[in-house]
């Protein structure tokens, strides 16, 4: 998810096309790992995630994601993915 860092940290008002492509790939292969970002996983890596921007990313990219209510932490799978 590194192409999305500028957007989800609040340094950009729109996600890049690379970010949206990467988001689509993650949703397809490991959608549960998106929850880690929303559950504070970025802080483990020294990142300050803007929750509002992170939650807006699927809409901004026009990518359908599972409901946030289905989030499960997947720490082992998430390591090294962003």
From TrEMBL:
It is a lipid-anchor; GPI-anchor. InterPro entries: Bifun_inhib/LTP/seed_sf (IPR036312), Bifunc_inhib/LTP/seed_store (IPR016140), LTSS (IPR043325). Residues 4-71 form the Bifunctional inhibitor/plant lipid transfer protein/seed storage helical domain. SUPFAM superfamilies: Bifunctional inhibitor/lipid-transfer protein/seed storage 2S albumin. CDD domains: AAI_LTSS. It is found in: Cell membrane. Keywords: Cell membrane, Disulfide bond, Glycoprotein, GPI-anchor, Lipoprotein, Membrane, Signal. One of its GO terms (cellular component) is side of membrane. The keyword Zinc-finger does not apply. It comes from the Eukaryota. Belongs to the plant LTP family. This is Bifunctional inhibitor/plant lipid transfer protein/seed storage helical domain-containing protein.
